[in-house]
Amino acid sequence: xAPFLYPTPIVSGLKEKIDALTVQGDRLYVGTSTxxxxxxxxxxxxxxxxxxxxxxxxxxxxxSIEQLGFIRDINxxxxxxxxxxxxxxxxxxxxPTPLVKxxxxxxxxxxxxxxxxxxxxxxxxxxxxxFVKPKPIPTLVTQLLVGCRRKVVIYSWRDGEAQEVKEATxxxxxxxxxxxxxxxACFAYSPTDYAMFSISTMTAVDISTPLPVTTSAGASxxxxxxxxxxxxxxxxxAKPKPASVRISKTEALIAKDSExxxxxxxxxxxxxAKIEWPAPPEELAFVKPYIFSILPPGSVPSQSxxxxxxxxxxxxxxSFIPTSVVQIRSSISLLTTQNIPFPFNPSVSSTSLPGPSxxxxxxxxxxxxxxxxxxxxxxxxxxTDRTAAAADGSTIWQxxxxxxxxxxxxxxxxxxxxxxxxxLDTIDEAVLPDKNTRRIHVRALNAxxxxxxxxxxxxxxxFIELDFNPAKVVAxxxxxxxxxxSVPREGWIPLYGGPTTIRSxxxxxxxxxxxxxxxxxxxxxxxxxxxLDSHTPVTESIRERIGTGLGAIMxxxxxxxxxxxxxxxxxxxxxxxxxxNIMRWLTITLHLxxxxxxxxxxxxxxxxxxxxxxxxxxxxxxxxxxxxxxEIAPLSETSTEExxxxxxxxxxxxxxxxxxxxxxxxxxxxxxSYLVIRxxxxxxxxxxxxxxxxxxxxxxxxxxxxxxxxxxLYKGKKMHAQALELLxxxxxxxxxxxxxxxxxxxxxxxxxxxxxxxxxxxxxxIFATDPNMAFDIFTSEDVxxxxxEVSDFLAGFDLKISARFLEYVIEERHEQASVLHDRLxxxxxxxxxxxxxxxxxxxxxxxxxxxxxxxxxNHHYSVDRLYGALSSTDLFEARALLLGKLGxxxxxxxxxxxxxxxxxxxxxxxxxxxxxxxxxxxxGTQTHAVFLTLLRIYLRPTVSTxxxxxxxxxxxxxxxxxxxxxVETLHLLPPLVTAQDVRGFLIEALRVPxxxxxxxxHISKARDDQLSxxxxxxxxxxxxxxDSRICPQCHKRIGNSVIAVxxxx
Length: 1049
Known about the structure:
The protein is an alpha+beta fold and 1049 residues long. The chain contains 41 helices and 29 strands. The strands form 7 sheets. Strands 10, 11, 12, 13 and 14 form a 5-stranded antiparallel β-sheet that branches. Strands 1-29-28-27 form a 4-stranded antiparallel β-sheet. The protein is elongated, with a radius of gyration of 58 Å. The protein starts with 7 loop residues before the first strand and ends in a 30-residue tail after the last helix. Its main location: membrane.
């Protein structure tokens, strides 16, 4: 689709020659060669009736009005006439204000913009407060540059206030002036001399460009006109005019001969690409982002299809348009987008025009667009034939751009996404309200195109930046990565909101499918077939309209020249065409395995970027794989349409359900990607919490024998039944019992009580194989299973295993619940009775010993309950121990004496835990008379017995006489018992504390009396000391010395 509609005439039949035109608001100002000014009101630019003549200012200037402009600050019209510039205030156009300093003027240019001007205020610290710098004030600044003879004069206004006029000398006179920004302007001195002028420094820098290259195509084009005469050859031989036009804030386009060169603000060539016109353009204009140029008659080739339709007898000159042509190019790619020949009637073909003698032609002038390079653009045509010009006059035409939305949609339909993006960048959001939405959409389509071209990193970067639906990103990959989300190559563009089929300018296309790979395995089989582009021989292709994509960059100069000079490349013959596409397809597909690996690597990067962000977003709403991974609906139950309909939006804008689906898609694709490129790292991924869809990857894991990873994945998803079944299948292949059972045992040991039924179900086959190893399932310290249920389950296999489990929890885990202690006692009792019934004395004795030890040492079971179970059995010792626990010691001792006839156990026994009386005897308590009770049972039997109980009674008296009451014992002794039989008892009885204390007291009293008498005797003795008494030791005279008398030794 051409970006502009065919121009429509808005003013026709104007007999005066139009030399200048400008637009301001709804007013169209037209200046003529006679100095008159026509003012029109433009109400509706889409209809001819919208143009109304408002006023004609006769003789506004004495001579031709060469240029018109408008200064918004002072609401004045700028008129260049008679080498002078005059300001006419609107709407009265009087009084005029000539700019006296701008004499000998050749051209001018006006530039207005809002600048933020900082106030020049000195800081004042006298008040003591901190100085606050004032904010810049937005100011409307307008500059008027007038190119005079060898100088430039600069007028400027700030919010309507005139500023000081500046001047700068130039080496040449500026014929054309084009503002780039408020500080830079491009001057055109002549068709070959240009300069870049800096307003801040008031200096001009000459522009140097490479020498033009004369192409063979251009020479051929000129040679094609050797037989032409008249106006057609005049167009090609006309003298070039200087031409310069601003195409952006940093670039200007200048015309040198037949070349258009893009120059930057530094006065250097800013682009390597340039425009090559078939002849020097007569005029240039710019409507963002398009460059308009007027090309002379006979310089632009007509379409090759029109030439072929004329038949073999067609003359060579018929392949060129014999009239002037308005050529429209993209300022982004500098490629031709549209050629509009005169007359501007789409129903008239240029090849149907009459010969040179009667050809219809007109001079075309691109006068001025509306402000800021916006559509519409106005041009003036005047018939070259004087008679026709006098009869018809001049006509003003209006160029109207097609809506931006239509242009972008057309580029998208043509598959030119990069071109559509470049066009979107030039559009203001004010004229395209949905610019951002369209940009996101086109960027996504361009990313798909990049992916298709092998630019995987660029595509993934775009998807990350756009927060794109991960389901659609994954859909670009083969089935071994994307699973059921995989979409064939031809469905990528429709999936991303593009057209179902991309229009092609070629009349034929070729699609080659890799049939040879159909029998290959996995990787080769899952690579989609490459769709081949067709060779396009048509000159004005869609890419050439606003080409910025890969094709525009890779075009050779010869191809560009051919599109302009009328020598397009000929279509390839049928066989050559097929060979060309096949070779191109082979070049691409030979690297498909490597491309697959690279593409999956970039997918892993994308998924790794999405995964933590999704995890954080889900955790914010308290959703984690640990608490809900096994509860949410599987991804396989959601249709692909629903997954593809997930919004392309930031994670914060998604609902929890949408976040869950995205997390499932990301983790599942990440697993599959690791299977393809990094299988060794799959284990670490399986062991962490994830949202992977197991059904999508388990078959691949099984096929690759990644059983450990699959088990970890099952475990993370709480699919324990599947994991344990897989462990069982793997264990059946092992010959060693430990290798067969231990993996399942270790897995079961880590399951919690919520999976108790699964533990019981799986452990059955392990118990059937090796009960001892199976017992370890329930002795794990990692989890604490409900012990009552475990005991009941184990009892169903074997009472010994159940008892063993209870012994473990009581002794090792210090379980104090009475129900488990009662259960263990019941198991002991049941096993004892069963063993006795079977006649297995060894087992009976072992278990009965455990029962007795349990009864003696345990304090957490219910004694009454156990005694009720034992009361009807012949387990007398156990009954006796329980009676002792109940405080019924007489009954317990009767069982020892009358039933068991085991007197030693009744007294003290060999085993300290089983000696009854010694165990329960406590002096000063209710059990202090337990030995006396046993003696009474011996000497006063309550049942008839034939056993001789006097001997054990006397032995009891002899061994435990300190623990027996002497008086009670003597009363219990039969009359026939002699003193000799109880001699030891009697001696000990006399040594009781009551007797021993009295004897000691009397002996102590006698000793004290003896000592008193001895002291009195010694105190009655006297010693006489005289002067002659001599010391028997030292033989000295005692005299008056102090002496002491002591008892002799």
